[in-house]
Amino acid sequence: MGDPLIRDAVHTDVDALDTLLQAAYTTRRSFGAGLRNSIAAGTARTFVAEVDDRLVGIASLHDYGMCGYVAQVGVDPAYRRRGIARRITEALIAAAEARGYTWLELDATPMGAPLYRQLGFADFGETIIYEGPTYGATSPDIELVGPDQALAIGDFDWSAFGADRSATIGALFADPTVRMFVVRDNGIIVGYACAREDRIAPWIAARSEDAMRLLEATRAALAPMTAAAYVPSDNSAARAALELRGFSESVRCTHMVRGRRNPARRDWIYGRVSLGEG
User: Which of 17, 75, 107, 252 has the fewest beta carbons under 10 Å from its own?
Assistant: First the structure.
């Protein structure tokens, strides 16, 4: 096998990349809609590795202005242990450095974590994927909002995360399954949560009582019988709330950072954005 060609993904790659990611992650869940949206909206730069005209690797770099989130890193199982993950991740890091990002973040599987440590990433706790029942109830102070509130939600999110994720938040509204809920204090957003087909992602609030009401609203809005939430391991309130409602741990990933991230209110983050979208 010669050196893989590393290039930017284009929209005609999406079907093949969807198949690749399903094989790499051993899942039947489709990634196609998210890939199409991020490529079309320009919220992420997606790299692919190509060998003999076959797509064998993928990695996406989501743009948060001053930092980036690395997601959807996958290699065709038939092409593993050939250095493809390293090559494509090195290309992504080079692009991030050229953009002047202060830091990068990602959630690593046990298989991927050793490579990321070699490439300068450090462990920052874990992301725990919880799964549980979807029934819930809405409160009168929880408001269902549309895309006109994306910038206001982004302003609040910046306080929690430390960078501008408003483009990614805005892109969520392109998904017809999305239901975005907010809670306000004197007209100002102080919490929000997103119900997305079978996921609660993200879920962020300044006050724990608001976080609990947002959790109930998102659970009530989800269609399937079970849903997933992506919880930082150090948010004990989020973990306790989910477990109380019948959720249990499914998967743990190592949350990793390369560089120096901005100070922020990370304790406000009850649920991260979906792992496939930063």
Answer: 252
At residue 86, the pLDDT reads 95
Q: What is the pLDDT of residue 69?
A: 94
What are the DSSP calls for 29-60, one per residue? ---HHHHHHHHHHTSEEEEEEEETTEEEEEEE
The pairing of strands 67-75 and 54-63 is antiparallel
Mean pLDDT, 10 residues at a time, the chain of 278 residues: 87 94 88 82 89 94 93 93 94 96 95 95 97 88 94 96 90 86 97 92 96 95 88 97 96 96 96 78
Topology at the third CATH level for domain 5-101: Aminopeptidase (3.40.630)
CATH of domain 129-271: 3.40.630.90
**Residue 100, burial from CB neighbour count under 10 angstroms (0-12, 13-18, 19+):** exposed
Question: Exposed, middle or buried, 203 (CB in 10 Å: 0-12/13-18/19+)?
Answer: buried
How far is Cα 266 from Cα 151, in angstroms, rounded to an integer?
A: 20
Say if residue 187 is exposed, middle or buried (CB neighbours under 10 Å; 0-12, 13-18, 19+).
exposed
Query: What's the pLDDT at 277?
Result: 66
Sequence ranges of the domains in the chain: 5-101, 129-271
